[in-house]
Design goal:
Pfam families: DNA_pol_delta_4 (PF04081). The structure is a single chain. This protein has a domain at 38-106. It is built from 4 helices and no strands. The chain is mostly helical.
């Protein structure tokens, strides 16, 4: 009796080549002479708000504005970041700032 056949026996064995030292697969090489652009103030503030949306410790963010979520978290003693409230108060009518990442998705 021989060994039991496996499904992987029907596929050829492929040896992977090692890349150059220090090079990992999927890593993009930086363009020569190109510096990464710093974020504008609005982009940095929106990134802060996106991180707040993704932070589960402040409760769910669907169906309410970011400011409502911030107030709810504060009332529950969850200590939401004060920077988030400051950003929200500086852009009171702008839906990019007031609505969470998920506001376009139906509940």
């Amino acid at each position: 009796m021989g060994r039991k056949r496996l499904i992987t026996d029907s596929y050829p064995v492929v040896k992977r080549r090692e890349g150059p030292a220090g090079h990992s697969k999927g890593e993009l090489a930086p363009e020569l002479g190109e510096e990464p652009q710093p974020l504008s103030v609005d982009e940095a503030e929106l990134e802060l708000l996106r991180q707040f949306d993704l932070a589960w410790q402040y409760g769910p963010c669907t169906g309410i504005t970011r400011l409502q979520r911030w107030h709810r978290a504060e009332q529950m003693g969850l200590e939401p970041p004060p920077e988030v409230r400051q950003v929200l108060q500086t852009h009171p009518g702008d839906p990019r700032f007031q609505c969470s990442l998920w506001h376009l998705y139906p509940l």
